[in-house]
Amino acid sequence: MKPFEVVETPIDAQVYSDYVLHAGAGAVTLFTGHVREWTHGVRTVYLAYEAYVPMAEKKLAEIGAEMEAKWPGVKVAIAHRIGELHISDIAVVIAVSSPHRKAAYEANEYAIERIKEVVPIWKKEIWEDGEEWLGAQKKYPEKGVDSV
Amino acid sequence: MIRVHYFARLRELAGKGQETLDREQMTVQELLDWAEESYPGFGKDDIQVAVNEEYALPGDVIHSGDECAFIPPVSGG
User: Fold this and answer.
1) What is the tens place of the pLDDT at every residue in A60-82?
2) Is the confidence at residue A148, as pLDDT, over 60?
3) Potential cystine with B8: which of A83, A112, A122, B57 (Cβ 3.0-4.6 Å)?
4) B75 touches chain A (CB under 8 A)
5) B77 in a domain, yes or no?
6) Residue B58 above 60 pLDDT?
7) Residue B77: which of A54, A116, A120 has the nearest Cβ?
8) Residue B7 distance to chain A (closest CA, Å)
9) Distance between CA atoms of A48 and A75, rounded to whole angstroms?
10) CB nearest to B74's CB, from A54, A122, A147
């Protein structure tokens, strides 16, 4: 594995947790984002993710560097899966270790917010009766956009 | 030649993942204008352009040999 990667196969979160663990770490936070079946009353059949892979991996690494600057001592690994994902599959994993728990929690949440802002990855929702690419700036009054 | 990549909605709209433009140089804004004209409904006002895997500004100049990508609003996570 690479510490910042886009993958096409199922994610084993433990691999990333193990990667960030070291003798100086007193805490590890492990976030996994999953495919949710129901979003604002609309049933998702599956999601199709697509990425500009080289740039996405670069941006994930930049987010890791931002985290290390803001919370000195954290060690980070992030992976995002692309392709067809089904209900409950892991779409993204963020593992953060730090000497103390507060930084591990804070840095982990920072990572997912930044991923949703700057990493070139896109999600298409496929429903029983249609499909739509989601984008942060688009508004779906009925369905909402806050998947995962 | 300038290579451009399309993703997600834009890939489906353009009907291709990438193509090359026979241009020596152009600005990011000119590239967006070209895309809007070539692919009605492109929606250039909501799209960012990456040049060589970095987000670029409308006035930035793209040169032959650069790799560009149209980045519609992202939705990872």
Assistant:
1) 999 999 999 999 999 999 999 99
2) no
3) A122
4) yes
5) no
6) yes
7) A116
8) 7
9) 30
10) A122
- CATH code, B35: 3.10.20.30
Residue B13 has pLDDT above 60, yes or no: yes
Q: Which residue in the set B5, B11, B76 is minimally distant from A80, CB to CB?
A: B76
Enumerate residues 6+ apart whose C-beta is below 8 A from B62: B2, B25, B26, B27, B28, B31, B51, B56, B68
pTM equals 0.93
Topology, domain A4-35+52-120: Aldehyde Oxidoreductase; domain 3 (3.90.1170)
Q: How many residue contacts between A and B have a Cβ separation below 8 Å?
A: 81
Confidence of residue A135 (pLDDT cuts 50, 70, 90): confident
List all residues 6 or more positions away from B54 whose beta carbon is below 8 Å from its beta carbon.
A55
Q: What distance in Å separates the CA atoms of residue B51 and residue A3, rounded to the nearest whole number?
A: 24
- pLDDT at residue number A141: 39
Q: Range of B6's domain?
A: 2-71
